[in-house]
Amino acid sequence: PIVGGTATVMRNLLSAFRPECFAVVADSPSSFPGEMHQTKTPTTTSVHRCGVPGFLARIPFSAHWLPYYRAAQIPRVERAIIAEAKAIQAGRIVTAYPSLYFLVAAYRASRSLGLPLVTYHMDVPFPIDRLRPPARQIATRWEPLLLREAARRLVLSEGIADYLEARFGLKSVVIPHSFPLDSLPAERLDAD
Predict the structure, then answer these.
(1) Predicted model pTM
(2) What does the alpha-carbon distance between residue 121 and residue 96 come to, in Å, rounded to a whole number?
(3) Residue 116 carries which DSSP code?
């Protein structure tokens, strides 16, 4: 399964493989504002959504306690990953950074099932001192461990690979951005 799936993961990572071989465990689109997480997924890919119900984010002051709610969801996400992995007889678990909660759930599921963990980094990890609780405690405890124990670390760019090597001393495999960027029309800014 691919864990912590986003539109970028779907279109970039899955395009490098056969999407019918994957089951995706991802945050609910309603967990985030806007429509970027509403991107259509390949019809051959199983997608299990779990995350913060959208109505909770609309409660006043929810920004203070929602990170704790997400952290409390780690066991639930882990169970979903295990179920999806068993259903497709997975040979490995792929998890996408930057979702710390999904990273931890994927790591725990991979250990429980005895499957190799592959991490996919769309960005560099946040500096620990810039994270707020409980993400700070989760990153401090789990991030170095799961990165070291990952069978492979896939990254979106050479810059991310260089960062992970400098910060953690770990080599990564670059999967070049698979969007056909050259075929996209350039934005035009008028000087008016």
Answers:
(1) 0.76
(2) 6
(3) P
Cis check: omega of the bond before 19, within 30 degrees of 0: no
Q: Which two tokens stand for residue 145?
A: 């461990």
Tokens 């991802």 -> residue: 26
Over residues 65-113, the pLDDT tens digits come to 778 878 888 999 999 999 989 988 888 898 888 788 889 999 999 999 9
Give the DSSP H or E segment for 41: none
Residue 70: both structure tokens together: 């997400």
Strand duo 93-97 + 117-121: pairing:
parallel
Per DSSP, the three-state class of 52 is: coil
Taking the C-alpha atoms of residue 70 and residue 73, their distance in angstroms, rounded to an integer, is 5
**Token pair for 139:** 């990153």
| Contact by Cβ (8 Å): 45, 22 | yes
Q: Report which residue type is found at 150.
A: A
Instruction: Find the distance separating the first CA and the last CA of the chain, reported in whole Å.
Output: 49
Q: What confidence score (pLDDT) does residue 40 get?
A: 59
135: tokens are 């993400």
**Residue 6, CB-side half-sphere exposure with 13 Å CA sphere:** 15
